[in-house]
Amino acid sequence: MTFTAHINVMPLKELLDPQGKAVMGGLKNLGMGQVQDVRIGKHITLQIEAASKEEAQQIAESACQKLLANQVMEYFEVHIQ
């Protein structure tokens, strides 16, 4: 069975996000002062062939731990469909 894993990788909240700060400055310059904070991350979609949803979850998490996310600076969330 084929599952789709949707993975969000974001910088840890304790770390500065220079890209987010730059976008925040741009939004303020455009008159959008209502925006309080910006964090920039990445969204990754994997098509996984697995016997069960649980196995697909394990495969996706393993991919994140080994390659897709730098756990020193980022955290990830995996959602399987």
From TrEMBL:
Enzyme class at the top of the EC tree: ligase
Record has ATP-binding as a keyword: yes
Main location: cytoplasm
A Pfam cross-reference name: PurS
Pathway: Purine metabolism; IMP biosynthesis via de novo pathway; 5-amino-1-(5-phospho-D-ribosyl)imidazole from N(2)-formyl-N(1)-(5-phospho-D-ribosyl)glycinamide: step 1/2
Catalytic activity: N(2)-formyl-N(1)-(5-phospho-beta-D-ribosyl)glycinamide + L-glutamine + ATP + H2O = 2-formamido-N(1)-(5-O-phospho-beta-D-ribosyl)acetamidine + L-glutamate + ADP + phosphate + H(+)
Family, as annotated: Belongs to the PurS family.
Quaternary structure (record): Part of the FGAM synthase complex composed of 1 PurL, 1 PurQ and 2 PurS subunits.
Protein name: Phosphoribosylformylglycinamidine synthase subunit PurS
Protein species of origin: Chitinophaga qingshengii
